[in-house]
Design goal:
By secondary structure, the chain is α/β, with parallel strands linked by helices. It has 9 helices and 13 strands. Helix 1 packs parallel to helix 2 and helix 6 crosses helix 9. The protein is globular and about 50 Å long.
């Protein structure tokens, strides 16, 4: 945020106390706008209320329609971003009052709400929502991607995988090493890592868990290799095979077996930098291209 980007806190599963603490810690580090991302697979009224009490200026909703939460956020003084995977979802979100739409192409890393590629999705969403700003997401990792997004009509870009290589990202070093060496063909889209978040498509790097599942004939949940086995330990407890869990710096165990979330733009991520330098590098490159 200090470098000019809109930093986002992913707090959709955090306790209200943790939400408050993360917001206050961020406010102590920046006077610039930042936001909180809330995932709609679980009730978010309490977390949203906490965000608004703390004066969070931007709230982002993901995985479903926000409905009355959008109006509640507006009453609390926050702007609302809403992530969509189709033009029809964008239309509904815009009618609900979203201040900006995030058009997430299926190239994106982590959980992916739609099945349309970024190149096709962004202009379709832009045309659908008219005057509502659109942010492009999915496969964007440098200034070329930002410039391309803006050429498609987007007002900016939502970038994830590139920031896994920031020095501030609290991911496990082994996970970061995989990101830095991966090719654009090394990701897998599917629902393998479904423990704790079932039936939710996602994109991650191919790893030993996926390969063992494929070698067994891609059996359904309940019949997969090593299912239920503890493969790692986090500060919050055991991590079992196929769990939807981000390998964090405090984790121990078989990190290579965990969900290594990554978008297809991963081949453009080749060095560790401060987050501020990533923001400046991407924006400077995009400005030069657009000029």
């Amino acid at each position: 945020s200090n470098a000019g980007g809109l930093g986002m806190l992913a707090l959709g599963w955090s306790s209200p106390e943790a939400v408050r603490a993360e917001i206050r810690a961020t406010k102590a580090l920046t006077k610039r706008p930042f936001g909180v991302n809330l995932v709609l697979t679980c009730p978010q009224e309490e977390r949203l209320a906490t965000c608004l009490e703390e004066g969070v200026p931007v709230v982002s909703f993901f995985w479903g329609q926000a409905g009355s939460l959008t109006a509640a956020a507006h009453r609390g003084g926050a702007k609302v971003l809403h992530t969509v995977g189709s033009a029809e979802q964008a239309r509904i979100s815009a009618e609900d009052g979203a201040d900006a739409i995030v058009a997430q192409g299926w190239e994106a890393g982590g959980h992916v709400y739609g099945t349309v590629a970024t190149m096709a999705l962004v202009p379709a969403v832009v045309d659908q929502v008219a005057t509502v700003p659109v942010l492009a997401a999915g496969g964007i990792a440098d200034g070329r991607g930002l410039a391309a997004s803006m050429a498609l009509g987007a007002a900016g870009a939502w970038i994830g995988t590139r920031f896994l290589a920031s020095i501030e990202a609290p991911i496990h070093p082994r996970y970061r090493d995989h990101i830095l060496t991966a090719k654009e063909t090394d990701t897998e889209y599917g629902t393998v890592f479904d423990v704790c978040w079932p039936d939710a498509p996602h994109r991650s790097l191919r790893n030993k868990t996926i390969e063992a599942w494929e070698a067994a004939g891609r059996p359904p949940a309940g019949r997969r290799p090593h299912e239920g086995a503890v493969v790692a330990k986090s500060p919050y407890g055991d991590v079992v095979a196929y769990q939807s869990h981000t390998p964090a710096s405090g984790d121990e165990g078989d990190i290579d077996a965990l969900a290594l979330w990554s978008g297809q733009g991963v081949s453009l991520v080749r060095r560790v930098q401060p987050a501020a330098d990533i923001v400046r590098e991407i924006s400077d490159e995009a400005r030069a291209i657009l000029a």
